[in-house]
Each structure stands twice: as C-alpha cells, then as structure tokens.
Design a protein that fits this description.
The structure is a single chain. This protein has helices at residues 3-81, 87-167, 173-185, 208-216, 238-244; strands at residues 191-195, 198-199, 221-222, 229-231. It is mainly alpha-helical. The protein has two domains: 21-169, Helix Hairpins (Orthogonal Bundle); 173-242, no CATH class.
C-alpha cells in the first residue's frame, strides 16, 4: 500500500466517522421533539379530561340548585293549596306541583348519569396525573442525556476534523480533488479492495495488465469502472506462513 493510499484510507475512516456522528447529532433533536410531542399529547388529553370533569361538576351543581328551587316551589304551592277556595284553583296548584316533581325526577336522573360519568373521569385523571409526572421526569432525563451525547459527539467531530485538516496538506492536490469527487459520488466510500481480480465495490474484473500494475503497488490506482481508489492485499499461502515463521528456539 502506497503512502498516499494509507492517507486516503485514514481520511475515509475519519470522514465516515464524522458522517455517523453528524447523523447522530441531527437525529437527537428529532428524537427529543418526538418524545415531547408524545408528552404534549398526554398533557392535552389530561386537560381535556379535566375540562370534561369540570363541565360535569358545573352541570351537576346547576341541576342540584334547580332541584332545590323546585322543592321550595312545591312547598309554597302546597301552602297555597290549603287556601284554595275553588276546585279549579286546587287542581291548578296540584298541576304545578306535579310538573315541578316531574322536573325534579328528570334532574335527579341526569344527576345520577353525571355521577356515573364523573367516576371514571376522576379515576383516569388520577392515574394520568401520576403517569404524566413520571413521563415528564423521563423526558427531562432523556433531554439531559441527549445534551450530553450531543456535546460528546460534537467534541469527537471537532477532534476528527482537526486530524482531517492535518492529513489533507500531505496529499497531492490532484489526489485530494479525486478523493472529494469520489466521496460525493459514492456516499463516502472511496476505496475498494481487489479480490480475485475484481473490484469488490462494483464487481468488475480488472484487465490483466492493470491488475499486474496494481499488484506492484508503485502508484495510486483507480477502478476503471466505478472510479474508486483500489488496493490489493496478496493472499498469504500456508507455505509462506511456514517460511516466515521464526524457528522454535
């Protein structure tokens, strides 16, 4: 592997890591926004239950007040019945009493319905308030973790970019220009290994003479199909291993 290819390889490693960190940094606000949106939905649901319970209680109070008014009215009508001088007056008072009693029964039936509706609302509200308190704590903890992770990632990005700036001047201008062009085209993957005479990225077979030049490793070479930088690691045979292994002492 040439010195330039080693630098290009390191540059690719840095750029891929930077890209991963930047994706993580950009994903964290979206994650926080999503859990805050979920929390807001639960808050609005609790507020709706509170509003429904409040309306329920107001209607019950109004009906209970009206029942009292009707009861007072009945009491007065009965007193007046005792002073009725004619049958017509008596029947008129009796009719008004019956109407008031009918209104009382209607209101009391509605009050019972409202009490039945209020019970699950109150139960759900109490549960929701406890769950919401825990959820708010979890959201705050998650936001703190996100802030810490973002700060850590940003520090890593700064360190990696500093190393990147040190490498760039060491590469010839034409190689650096080719690197940036290939990186943009292939989404950061600029180097491919040659395996069994093929570019491992595009799977195109190399010309025999081109492959021989690559094996010599005298210069930086590009795939004639996809344009990526190429490198070749010759396979090590079992015999080679034996030949290069130091003899036992």
């Amino acid at each position: 592997m040439t010195a330039d290819l080693e630098l290009v390889t390191r540059l690719q490693t840095l750029d891929l890591k930077i890209a991963d960190l930047q994706r993580e940094i950009s994903a964290l606000p979206k994650h926080i926004a999503q859990i805050e949106k979920t929390l807001d939905t639960h808050v609005r649901r609790l507020e709706a239950d509170r509003a429904a319970l409040s309306a329920n209680q107001k209607e019950r109070k109004s009906l209970e007040d009206d029942v009292k008014v009707q009861q007072q009215k009945i009491s007065k009508l009965r007193d007046q019945m005792l002073q009725a001088k004619t049958n017509e007056q008596y029947r008129a008072f009796q009719h008004e009493i019956e109407y008031a009693e009918k209104e009382i029964r209607k209101h009391e039936d509605r009050i019972l319905d409202l009490m039945g509706e209020a019970e699950p609302l109150e139960t759900n509200m109490k549960k929701a308030e406890v769950a919401l308190k825990e959820e708010k704590q979890q959201v705050e903890s998650e936001k703190n973790r996100a802030r810490e992770a973002t700060a850590k990632d940003q520090k890593q990005v700064a360190d990696l970019e500093a190393e990147r700036k040190e490498i760039m001047p060491k590469l010839p201008r034409e190689i650096l220009s080719a690197y940036e062009r290939i990186r943009k085209k292939w989404h950061g993957v600029v180097i491919a290994e040659v395996i069994e005479g093929r570019c491992s990225a595009c799977q195109i077979s190399l010309r025999p003479q081109f492959f021989q030049d690559l094996r010599r490793g005298e210069q930086l070479m590009f795939c004639e199909s996809c344009g990526r930088f190429l490198f070749y690691n010759p396979p090590v045979s079992f015999e080679h291993d034996l030949a290069t292994t130091p003899a036992a002492q």
